[in-house]
Design a protein that fits this description.
Structural class: mainly beta
Number of strands: 19
Distance between the termini: 29 Å
Strand order of the largest sheet: 8-9-10-11-12-13-14-15-16-17-18-19
């Protein structure tokens, strides 16, 4: 990685541990380990871990846009000598990361450390340049290293400064994650999110309106994970069809509604095993469902310890439970409502290594009353750094589908098919994507030049030329 940071170029690392010699009071003496010096006064007991953690500075990470490698879970795990905040207004330091494409095809990440509260008025800026084919794992490690360097100035002014070292890595030559559970929190570790979106497009002969609203509450500790969410989406369309010699003008209207409410409770049983319960309720015009209720107890096993979750996971998940459906129209199996028990098994691999990243899963679902009502889906994405300047990205999914018990007996009109108002009968579904990238030339071109970047980005009906 061609990494230019506006600090000395030799690598530095910041980590927790015993203090330096200066912090510990000088070089060792001949006294037995732990024995107080002659004539020394009694020393107060060392503060406990909760007190020490509460004295650490508070940091908010703000990655503008989609900054590659800005993996918050990894960074929170790796940079564990600070308290990571959900909101910038609670932070002592805000880390603002923004990325631009440099001349070599890589990215220039500008990392700004903004002092807040007790550090108001303090600010620093570091710059990290990456190559276009650097693996995500390497980029996020470089980001974490740069964060440590930039935070050193602020940590040095905090009560835990004596417990922090700077380690110098000469040329050629299991940290424990900070537990937020040790801190006082009036929200009791709950995080709430609301999201509203609206889209309107109108022309003389057509109109489209889409609105969505979602609410969620999440809480995570080392032993428990709780997610509660509800969402709704309404999509309406109107088309004016002009008259012809054989028929008059008419209007086509379409409305699709989807509402969901879900809750997930997970208990960590060991470093590999977890148990959980998922409860859901929904309404969907597309799936011909006035009401869908689900209760799914589940168990999961991870081949790798969960302490390695930001780097690799190989999980096997199994859930089984009842489903109740009330249908809008009578189904192909002559059902207006029914209760069926289903089971589902999923194997999933997630990895981020120096060679690239991968995410692959195999999912099996079937109804216990009729094993012919089943679905098998293979999906994934693999991003490989095959050689210098050359990378390959392959993704997609393939599904064998035979579980559509919700299809209406009366079928769909031509109008409903064209408007994709409801799901259609199918025996398979395939999606694919492949990408190949090769970059060559100078690896030292890290100059950023954004002049004329907006040329060709006109939103009008036409432009004279585009880049």
């Amino acid at each position: 990685m061609n990494s230019f940071v506006r600090v000395p170029l030799l690598a530095l690392a910041l980590g927790l541990g015993a203090g330096s010699l200066a912090a510990q009071g000088g070089p060792p003496t001949g006294r037995p380990a732990g024995a107080p010096p002659a004539g020394a006064r009694p020393v107060a007991a060392a503060p406990d871990s909760a007190t020490l953690q509460s004295q650490a500075i508070r940091v908010f990470l703000d990655c503008q846009g989609r900054v590659r490698g800005c993996d918050r879970d990894f960074i929170v795990t790796d940079v564990n000598f600070v308290n990571w905040m959900r909101d910038r207004f609670d932070a002592d330091v805000q880390i603002l990361v923004s990325g631009l494409t440099n001349g070599g095809g890589g990215s220039e990440n500008t990392i700004t450390f903004i002092g807040r509260r007790r550090f108001e008025g303090m600010a620093d800026t570091l710059v990290l340049n990456t190559l276009p084919n650097d693996a995500d794992d390497r980029i996020r490690r470089e980001l974490a290293r740069t964060f440590k360097l930039g935070l050193a100035r602020y940590v040095a002014k905090s009560p835990i400064a004596s417990r922090v070292q700077l380690a110098y890595v000469a040329p050629f030559g299991g940290q424990q994650q900070a537990s937020a559970a040790n801190l006082k929190d009036r929200w009791n570790l709950w995080t709430y999110t609301t999201n509203f979106n609206a889209f309107v497009r109108a022309e003389d002969q057509q109109q489209s309106i889409n609105g969505s609203l979602s609410l969620s509450a999440n809480r995570a500790t080392a032993k428990w994970k709780i997610n509660v969410s509800t969402s709704g989406n309404i999509n309406t369309q109107r088309f004016e069809i002009g008259a012809t010699a054989t028929r008059p003008a008419f209007t086509v209207r379409n409305e699709q509604r989807t509402y969901n409410a879900n809750s997930l409770i997970v208990r960590s049983l060991s470093s590999h095993w977890s148990a959980g319960l998922k409860i859901g309720a929904g309404f969907s015009d597309f799936l011909n469902q006035d009401l869908a209720l689900r209760l799914q107890p589940a168990v999961e096993y991870n081949v790798f310890p969960w302490t390695e979750q930001t780097r690799r996971q190989l999980t096997f998940l199994y859930n089984v439970g009842p489903n109740h459906y009330n249908y809008q129209r009578t189904t192909v199996f002559d059902q207006d409502s029914e209760t069926r028990v289903s089971q589902q098994a999923t194997a999933s691999l997630v990895a981020r290594q120096s060679w690239g990243s991968s995410n692959v899963s195999l999912d099996w679902l079937n109804y216990l009353h009729d094993f012919n009502r089943h679905a098998l889906t293979l999906s994934g994405n693999v991003d490989l750094r095959i050689g210098r300047g050359f990378s390959l990205n392959v993704g997609g999914s393939a599904a064998r589908i035979n579980d559509q018990i919700y299809l209406p007996r009366a079928g769909n009109t031509e109008e409903e098919i064209l408007l994709q108002r409801q799901a259609l009968q199918t025996g398979f579904r395939i999606t694919t994507n492949i990408g190949i990238r090769y970059t060559f030339g100078s690896i030292y071109n890290t100059i950023v030049n954004q002049r004329f970047s907006s040329l060709g980005a006109s939103s009008g009906r036409f432009s004279f030329f585009s880049l």
